[in-house]
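Practice problem: predict the structure.
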Amino acid sequence: MKLAEVLKLLEEDLITRIDRGDYDGVARLLEDREDHLHAAVLWETTWDFERACQAYLAAGALIDGLRCALSTSNTALADEVIQAFASASAPERSAAEALLRRRKRSGLLASLLSRPGGDPSAHSDALADAGDLLGAATALADRGRYDEALQRLRPIDEEQSPLPHIELAASLHWRLGDAERAATLSQHALRRGASGSLNRQVLAPALVALGHGLAADIVQRRAPAQNEAASGDAAPRRGRYLVQGVSPHPFAGRALLAIDTIEHREVEIHDLLSESGHATHGSPEAADVVRDFIEAALAAAELRHPALRPILWGDVNAGLLILERGSKTTLRSLIRPPGLLQDQLRVKAMMLFMLRGLAAAHDRGLVHGALFPSLIVFDPAERPLLSPFGLHRLSAIVATRTGSLDELLSLTAPEVRAGRAPTPASDIFSLGRILAALALGQISEEVSGLPPQLRELVSSMTSEAPEDRPSARRAMAQLSAARDASASVTTARLTSSVLGPREQTSEVADPSPPPSLAHALATAHDSWRDEELEMLCSESHGFMQPILDRQARQFLVARWPHGCAVVDIGERSGEAASRPLFEAIERLPPTLAAALRGRMSHASVVRTPAGDWMLSLDDLLGRGPEDSGGAAKA
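Answer:
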């Protein structure tokens, strides 16, 4: 249901309130009337997807509720919606499966398919797509489909495969009657620290079946001693990296999330040839492909440009690449309707940042070859980081995951699709398509909806002829000119230019912010120390106004959406309601917390349309301790 359809059904006074921007008030009124469906449409119109989801669920519109849940980062809400499908009709479950597949939410799809009546093969496929091969195999094994489960785990390497994989494979081989392979895998697993129960359940019966009764008896007698040793004081031996889970963004093979126990930082371990299962696995050709990619990635990483994702270590012989852990979200998450045309400065700032990194690499003769939004993560300051260079080289390996199908078709330059090797011009083509996709909210070849300056730039970057495309530095100059033209008044203060004088009221609404104030450009006060500014950029919390870009002491911060209000925390009601915000500040590093507290004023706290309380960095960055105005400190 669209907003226009809702308006036809509402009373005249409610339509008038909506025209004035009072979406929240009308939505609450409709919920009080138990008109949850129409309230949900209004919540969704203001991008309050969590409330919209709850309202759709109350109205029984499960698919719409799921769609809104997928637009939030609230995993508990998404799980709640999946649980609601337990009593859904078959057509609703099919529609939910289709939606989750389109959104590539394999984990949630697996959860949906795990419900009673779900297809075990589809459940296993979804878990495999989410990177959980062990779960995929277990889902089949639990249904008695042992051979299919074993296929999920292959190839099994006794020394390199994860220990749980070897344990499950040993059990599956025993159930399939292959006693010799079951015994071999069990012995390897036990040497690597597997549970002693594997002795009794697999190894001992397998040895008996092979005619080694005495050995089986010894194994049975040793099992309790092993269990006691496992519960003793001696700490188990482990390697440098403590694996925590599976990354959803592998380049090829699989990627693990881990902790570097020596340097105490979070990392991603990309095992490029694991789980390949294709004809080239273990072949010299596959090794050469991986070696070429890792060498290209390391060459680009040596530039140490802030727009290039850092690489900590690469082993061309083992096919391993270790990177600092990236953000949970990717640039692809920003490509959704209605697009970011109202947020052009943010789009241009991100694009300039990536172009700078690309220009530095092109100057050294390096080509990326596979610029896809699904592989571009963010740094702590919410700036996009280009994925490792040379990813296109992995296309020779079947089962690589270097971009979804729509990205491959739309973002790859025509000459590359025709079989030619990638060049700097093909990188520019891909980045031009990404620029249009961010602005318009979808990946396509259509550019008519772009403003004239952006349309001209994107058209030149995506020209059919490579020689007609600008270089990265030329594109930077054109984009900078377009940014300067649209940012002439962004230095105005939100609190003084948009929200009006503070003295008039304790809470001032923002009915219609001028489009020219889409962002705030803040210059840090002289009293801010470099150490404090670095800490501010490294902290990424939901209660802070996002920092989009930084140049020395100048910060480009995200705009405040329509309906935000500055709250006077000196008032009794404001002080009480904003207390959780001050408690969150206290959990920051002491130096940063003190810097923020010392600059707080009555203009430093903003309430969003969704009811969240946030720190206004465009206000705080411009203040010194002497400018705090004696604001209340909770």
